Amino acid sequence: MRMRGSAAALAVLLATGAIGAGAQTATSQHVAPSAPDYRLPANWAARPTAQQIRGKDVDVFYIHPTTDRSVDRWNQDVADAQVNRWTDESVVARQASAFGACCRIFAPRYRQSTAGAFRDPVVRKAAFALAYGDVLRAFDDYMAHDNGGRPFILVGHSQGAVHAARLIEDRIDGMALAGRMIAAYVVGIGLSQGDFGRTYKTVRACETQAQTGCVVGWNSVLPSMADKDQFVRLLETAYTDRYGDAPGKALLCVNPLTFDRTKPAATSRASRGAAPGDPGFGPMQKLRPHSVSARCENGLLVVDPAPDLNLKPLPNGSLHYHDIGLFWADIQRNAVLRSKAFRKTHPH
Q: How far apart are CA 195 and CA 299, in angstroms?
């Protein structure tokens, strides 16, 4: 979101401990990797095959989170096979896959900001600008060559959510594409309620589970998080750095067990299926239903997962890495529901 996007991601990653205290700043002798050509299939982590196209009349444009923990460069080289494998198996297969029941999935590789670029504000700003430029080009390429006028869902997590939030501002809000956006899942960053009406003039936060043309978001933490208020204040700086003391800094929290803002809390009975274990190589484990309860509290999603999910929280009690996996089946159902609702009001 303009100047503040990288600061929002930094607030999450530093506060959660996702970037360790020992992380170093990338070298100042930075040479940007070559820009990806989005006409080449190799520069996409996911693109639909001919078989996957059949029967699916909605697309998902998914932007992955930070997966390059390098400290010797600012931005990933998209030809780095090791990072790409980690990206594909740790997040694309575990997050984007939740949208596979409704949609064709398009997930670009991009010169993401590395972990090493986060600590220096000048480096961070430049790294995020380069990364966002790729995301924007990938989205434009997808719209020009692959979308064909189809409705779409936008998804981003963590760094990917920063880019998704800015993409809504630059390409969707108040523009023709807003009429084709079924929903945006912008998860794991500090979206504030006041962004809707200020940052976004026409796009609104989702109020109900079948509403379309709107945005959902949340940040998952354990009940035992030591200082939730401090974490909230850090996340709110994404808004206050841009708008100062203007009303609206309270964080957006849409509970993914209900996707209904009039129902901010739900017991584990509502949980349709959570992904066990930590993100990693190899296939996702079998989903476990009724394994997590969740409630929105002061803008955070306070989550109580079953012990046998074997999830490892970040040092401060954040479940940032599990923002999607905890609610995999709930998100899948919601994406199908919103897609059907959109088609009812927008017939072919």
A: 14
